[in-house]
């Protein structure tokens, strides 16, 4: 199995998000986003970090793309900041913002790097939040479709691969259930499901417009997929896995791929008075879009364990490890259905994320069997404390071991019949890790900055040269060591 290779047209890539790397948050006509406001709330981020400067990719994109070209990347997945294109979320276009992305796309193409564009990676124009509540209002659907349509028309012929939404399950859960992301609502469960419905409509209508404009282009959504294992063969624990999958995984993927909500989960929410309002027109739009999406995007980091959770058990609300102090994550779940304890058979990162390379293969096989769709691994990576030596070297053998094991499992999945188009690591350079500040590093390229600032100089880590060889050999250099 260690002699496997990826097909010659496989897209070896890496990924980023606008808010996490660009900076220049008020330059060249950009409007404020919901994150620009949210990070000003004391205690929301590690050491009050913001993306106002981030890692200054806005001014250093040519340097970063040159490093990508040196590595040999075949694709670069990045997001566009909606408020850089439409400062008010709609209305007048900010041409300077469009030109920045046009230049970035052209720079990628110049180096034979396929641009893969994410339309929404969590940064909503604050003007739309102020006007009508952002995703809480159905008005946002048309505004999102208008924004997407403008970009499709502007970059037609240059960008083939598009992703509508990044991790819809994450930004809605942390935004309306745990108050950890904007708009900072806590346990607003009814609105949480209605917000998700609006996001689904924005996704679906965007897919339909895209296919009219670019029928040969490729479009899908990226889902933060955490495949699940039952704790054991105790029937109530096995049932907890079914409930977890329906409410935490298939609730999103079934809409993307089938155009409908999972029936058991919808029935459960109806009985609780939490189900979203779904019209016959909505169902038709969902179905038409599902018939036209091209791939399932997967952001894979970890698997989950499912165990029955009694009615007086743990809730969805607990402390999340955002400091890197191992062992501070708390168990969560839904009373009466499931909870997600730690997996005793697997190691974890300093942020208590389970390290499970075989879970990536599991995810691909499950998607292939359930949806029969091609797969784009739009994120996979290891957040860690990296140290730069006095000689400006970064020895991240732990990251190399992580990627080696995950890519090996991915190649097994392809060998077993899964159609995988791309593998994008998270991330190319170090960046702002949302709530975790700058100390949680993911990149192949070390950026000299921390919570207090820095020079922004770039340094290649050991993993940079390692991935360069992986790409050069089409995965032939992967050892499969775990």
Features of the shown structure:
single chain, 482 residues, alpha/beta, TIM Barrel, eight-stranded parallel barrel, 15 helices, glycosidase, GH_1_N_CS, Glyco_hydro_1
Short synopsis of the structure:
The chain is of the alpha/beta class and 482 residues long.
Fold blueprint:
Layout: E1 11-15, H1 18-21, H2 34-38, H3 57-71, E2 75-79, H4 82-85, H5 95-110, E3 114-120, H6 126-132, H7 139-154, E4 161-166, H8 168-176, H9 189-213, E5 218-224, E6 228-230, H10 235-258, H11 263-271, H12 280-290, E7 296-299, E8 304-306, E9 333-334, E10 338-339, H13 357-371, E11 375-379, H14 397-415, E12 420-426, E13 445-447, E14 458-460, H15 462-472
Parallel strand pairs: 1-2, 1-12, 2-3, 3-4, 4-5, 5-7, 6-8, 7-11, 11-12
Antiparallel strand pairs: 9-10, 13-14
Helix pairs in contact: 3-5, 7-9, 8-9, 9-12, 10-12, 13-14
Protein architecture, described:
Helix 3 runs parallel beside helix 5 and helix 13 packs parallel to helix 14. The longest helix has 25 residues. The mean pLDDT is 97. The protein is built from 15 helices and 14 strands. It is an alpha/beta fold. It has one domain: TIM Barrel. GO terms for molecular function: beta-glucosidase activity. This is Glycoside hydrolase family 1 protein.
